[in-house]
Structure formats: C-alpha cells, structure tokens
Amino acid sequence: xxxxxxxxxxxxxxxxxxxxxxxxxxxxxxxxxxxxxxxxxxxxxxxxxxxxxxxxxxxxxxxxxxxxxxxxxxxxxxxxxxxxxxxxxxxxxxxxxxxxxxxxxxxxxxxxxxxxxxxxxxxxxxxxxxxxxxxxxxxxxxxxxxxxxxxxxxxxxxxxxxxxxxxxxxxxxxxxxxxxxxxxxxxxxxxxxxxxxxxxxxxxxxxxxxxx
Length: 212
Known about the structure:
Elements: H1 2-8, H2 11-36, H3 41-56, H4 59-69, H5 79-104, H6 108-116, H7 121-151, H8 163-173, H9 179-211
C-alpha cells in the first residue's frame, strides 16, 4: 500500500505537465495552422517545415536539448519547466495538424456566405469558422491529450518527479523491480479512462447543441 501511495503522489505532476503542455499546444497551434493556410508561399513552407521538425524529433531528444542544452545556461529553468516547454512545443505542431483537419471539414460555402455578408476575414475566423473547428477538433484533441499524458512519462529522465520517476525509484529501493511499474501502469489507466469518457461525453453534448 505504501508503494502505491508513493507512486500515486506523482499524479499531480503528471497531470500538471499534460494540461500545461496541451494548453500551450492549443494556443500555439493556431499561428501554425494559420501559417499553413497563408496566401504567401514562403510562410506556408516555413510553417510546414517547423511542424515537421517538431513532430519528427522524438520527445526525449527535445527534452534533452532543452534541459541539458539550452537550459544549461538558464539557471531559472527547472526540469519541470523544461518538460512543459518541450512537450508544449511538440503539442503546437500536433494541434496545428488537428486544427487543419478541422478546417478542412468546414464547407467552403460558409466562408463565401460570411464574406458575402460583409464580414472581414478575421471576423469569419473568430465568429463563424473558429467555433466549428473547435467542436470538430475536440475528439482528435482529446485523443492526443490522452496520448500526451502517457508520453509525458519520458520527463522522469531529466529528474521530474512524476509517476514514472517514483515507480523507477521504488524499483531501485526494493527487491521487486516489476511491481512498481505494474502499479504505474494501473495508475495511468485510472487517469486515462475517465478522460476518454469525459471527451466522448463532451463531444456528444456539443453535437446535440449543434443539432438544435
């Protein structure tokens, strides 16, 4: 029981990193997707290149580059901050692609109808297209968020005291090297299942409102 409670104590850190990184991604993904849809070819190329680089390099490498590389000269950057920043950058790229898929699902006729009413391009995005993209993107964003929660386990490699860090410590401190990781896996399941149910419920409620 003591081992379970010790590992469970890492949940707040894991959830904090996941929520913060996803929040950065949800906001940071907007300029990325707008860049992908820019009328200027150079901006489209740069945006796509940044997205591919952020997605192409494994999260663990990003964490090492940020914490042991750039963060080495920044005494104020803790392992927790480096984790949030690194996973947040990656989230920006993934959320941009999710938003792009949401934009593709919106009929072109809605753009034309809004512009015919004299609305500016910015107003169309903010008041007509944006809310619909948000609703359409929720299932994919929720799925990514659950994956991000599990992928955040790599932060233990730079010393963040999350679920995996505590499980790893327990495996070294006891003669049982397997049980701590089984407990950690069980804790991740406890967290992710309610998240999946919640995302499906939210998506269903939004669909009902749209249907009205």
